[in-house]
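Entry:
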Amino acid sequence: MSTIVSTSAVTGASSSTYVTASGSSTLDTAALISAAVVAKMQAAYRIDSEVATLKDKVSAYEEMQSDLQAIIDAADDLTSNSDTSVFSTLEAYLSSSAISDPTDVLGVTVGSDAELGIYQVVVSQIAMAEKIVGNEQTSSTTALGKEGTFTLQLAGHTQVSIDVTSGMSLSDVVKAVNNQSASSGVTATLVKTSDSGYTVMLAGSDTGKSITLADSSGTVLSDLGFLDGDAIAQAAQNAILTIDGQTVTSSSNDIENVLSGVSLSLYADTAGKTITLEVGQNLSGIESGITTLIDAYNTYRKFAVLNQTTDDNGAVDGAYLFGDNVLRNANAEISDALRKSVTVDGTTYRLADLGITYDESNYLEVDTDTLNDFLTQHPDVVEALFSQSATAANTDVLVTGTAGSMDSGTYTVNLSFTGGAVSGATITDSLGKTTDLTIVDGIIKGADGTDYEGLRLIYTGTTTESSLSTTLTVKGGLADAVTRSLDGYANTSDGLIQKRIDSIDDTITDQEDKRDLIASNASDYEAYLVKYYAKIEAAMEKSASALALVKALFKLNNSSSS
């Protein structure tokens, strides 16, 4: 009889059953079928290898895309147009030649609408809450034996009535006052004044406001000493300070927008001593933004180095983009952007002047001492180097926004007027190409999708002329150059890398379809061979059985003849 042997198909399909003869047959049909199918699958195996290589390349492109996007994000924070620009974030700096730590006296909060400036601040007095103290009592829990009603109110709050019965103690009176403190603005505190003495302190919840209290029936307040002439332990007072000689009075120690976008918190008076308040750029934020860009570049640099490394056998393992022109061109774009310079007051500056240089492996490194010194002494140069700036020769044309895609150089802006208002505008580059600008609510803007997107101009003057022409000078913009040059590579919608990824993905899909067809055909061939060899095995088995029968009969005849 035949033996059924189960063998896994090499095509990736489900297992097939092969029939192999037992007994006299020495034919290994399983091996024959396997060898035949493997031969059919060779093209599929080559596709598997190709697809694996393509997938490695896609992963490499995705890593490159992510690394470049990280550089763009970091650079964007160093541009002038970004909502998160580190150059538009301001910080308060306090100093004093007479006060060791000015922050013990003054706290400063700087908002987004603050302006750069330096101010001299003297705090004459801080705001105080009024406090009224009653006479000392011998017990806080013994019934006072007093009856009556008194009223209580902090200025700006609601007057309340406190009812006192003869069985109430000093502690009970405190509770009764505090039960209505949310309305009255007055809180009561039990104070132990001696080993056997207690009193109650009434305090306003707000500074600079007086407490009004009176007995409306009975003499509870009078008897407890709250109406005595010396009961006011601390009178309410306003905060008083001067800023550049201008007196400021506030009922609160927290003074919002005392300067445009600047709020102060007063902790103590300065005893006539002066604190210098400087509202300036957030230098630590700028330094952090620069180091973030450097770190992002170095991460990409590590990737680029790996994909350009060779050994005796060619490209090293993991160098899936070796010799790739997209990688090579992106490297050149970054290198060109980082070589940008800016000229300020006749002096040209580059990254190296800020302490940012290349090491022997072309990774960026920063001398933090040099960078900090430069930020402190020349913050305008740092901003000019990284962030694009533009100025108009005509001072009536105010530049309120720049376009990061504009090259450094000079441009001609032409304005048309109707009835004294701007009615049309164009801009012409150094090559003579003229582009229309749009006008929205009096603001002259670069149109979306053009090289001038982000450019914003405002005409602040008055004129009876029909037209005006002025020169626009654009400078610097290392960070703008980085974002502009790399977006064409890293953009996930239509960047060069994404196009490569999409193309490879399409190729992978096509190859996998071919592979599946080859495997399907091999599987069909496998099924055919199983049936084919099964018939052969069955025929061989039948022949063997017949032969065995003949031999048996022959042997029987021989035995009978003898």
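Residues 496-561 form the longest helix (66 residues).
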